[in-house]
Amino acid sequence: MQAIERQYEPQIQAELAREYRKLIRDYEAGEGVKYDPEHQRNIAEILERMAGASVRVFGARILEQGKAHGLVLERKDFASTLARLAQRYVAMEAFRRHITNITETTRAQIIRGIARGEAEGLGVAGVARFVRDLVPSLSVQRANLIARTETHGAANYGANGAAKETGLTIRKEWVSAGDGRTRDDHAEADGQIVGVDEMFDVGGEGLFYPGDPGGSAENIINCRCAVSHIVDD
After folding, report:
1. Of 112, 132, 167, which residue constitutes the final position of a domain?
2. Domain check: are 19 and 52 in the same one?
3. pLDDT averaged over the chain?
4. What are 200's strand-pairing partners?
5. Do 79 and 102 reside in the same domain of the chain?
6. 88 and 185 in one domain?
7. What is the 3-state secondary structure (H, E, C) of the chain?
8. Which of 28, 180, 184, 191 has the fewest Cβ atoms surrounding its Cβ within 10 A?
9. 69 and 175 co-located in one domain
10. Residue 24 · residue 132 · CB < 8 Å
11. What confidence category does residue 1 fall into, taking pLDDT thresholds of 50, 70 and 90?
């Protein structure tokens, strides 16, 4: 998962920095800080590639393990199954919402930066310099957060989806990271076992798997839990 994050995080960072600087130029030119459809398209393309890679890699791991339990599936069928899972994931309404939220947050952060600069009595040029100085840290921090969160959700979706594709009788278990950074609700969910199509109860919220994009930000951002599968004989 970290390898996938390292591959796509610089792309996310570059796109965020590009958009931050564009919005600052627009402000300087007196054009306001407007919604930019190009930014949403670019973010969508990066996240779709990243999610697709995560689904395929982690789905393949499960299918390989399924072979040890008698799964009969040719390599070409592996590929088509994983491609179908990846397509389903990126088409999910919750995943598309994440893309919209990311692009709206980009604009909102620049607006907040401008408001801070103006509150300090800076002129247009001064405000632009002030906000432009924030771009490196903003883009690095957000790129890391986005890459980790979105890779995590897609990977667990791929693992769970592939487990169902095996045709085996399976249940799933919530496995927390089990360290000092683990959320209390996630630590309490550790070891919880449910049916493969059922939701885990995580702090009163239903999640199909760790990082489920349909979950609240409090439950999925920076989550490091995993889903494990139990084959019933």
Report:
1. 167
2. yes
3. 92
4. 207
5. yes
6. no
7. CHHHHHHHHHHHHHHHHHHHHHHHHHHHCCCCCCCCHHHHHHHHHHHHHHHHHHHHHHHHHHHHHHHCCCCCCCHHHHHHHHHHHHHHHHHCHHHHHHHHHHHHHHHHHHHHHHHHHHHCCCCHHHHHHHHHHHHHHHHHHHHHHHHHHHHHHHHHHHHHHHHHHCCCCEEEEEECCCCCCCCHHHHHHCCCEEECCCCEEECCEEECCCCCCCCCHHHHCCCCCEEEEEECC
8. 180
9. no
10. yes
11. confident
Query: Domain total for the chain?
Result: 2
Residue 215 phi, psi (nearest 5): -85, 170
Read off the amino acid at residue 89: Y
pTM, two decimal places? 0.91
Question: What number is the average pLDDT over the span 99-126?
Answer: 95
Res. 69 pLDDT band, cuts 50 70 90: confident
Same domain, 26 and 136: yes
Tell me: do 144 and 181 sit in the same domain: no
Question: Do 156 and 226 form a contact (C-beta atoms < 8 A)?
Answer: yes
The whole-number pLDDT of residue 73 equals 67
Give the up-direction half-sphere exposure of residue 134: CA atoms within 13 A in the CB hemisphere: 20
pLDDT for res 233: 67
Among 15, 13, 24, 39, smallest CA distance to 99 is for 39
pLDDT digit string, tens, across residues 105-117: 999 999 999 999 9
Task: Indicate the pLDDT class of residue 165, thresholds 50, 70 and 90.
Answer: confident
Residues of the domain holding 176: 169-233
Write the CB contacts of 169 (distance below 8 Å, at least 6 apart in sequence).
231, 232
